[in-house]
Amino acid sequence: MQRFVAGLFAFAVVLVGAGSSVASGQAAPVRPGAPSTVSTVPGGDVTLRLGQEAAVQGKDLTVRYVRVVNDSRCRPNMTCVWQGEASLAFLLSEPGRGESTTAELHTGPRTGPQATNFAASRVDLVSVSEDGQKATVRVS
Question: Which of 56, 85, 45 is nearest to 68 (CA)?
């Protein structure tokens, strides 16, 4: 019985491998690695794509756009009773000290803060693209 189970397992492994993107000659999907990093000056606006981070010049501080937590904003070409808001998560880090925290920032004041303080800096959410793929922040 053990031989049968072992043989069945080996067959399943080969079968799964035959259907993979490598075996079929297709390019293997790229796994996300380290986030791409852009540089910004204190007090300037910087637009980040999901997963991208900004290193603030002259400060031991990075701000990474992690994810959309919630988005109730009115979609394009729709008629809405109220404007709605988006909530976004950012990872704020001091790489030199090994300190970090996650902050949830909002596009409007009804559901939460639009800014936070970390590492003697203030991070403001300035705007969010319609699809939520880009967020503009100001670090001062």
Answer: 85
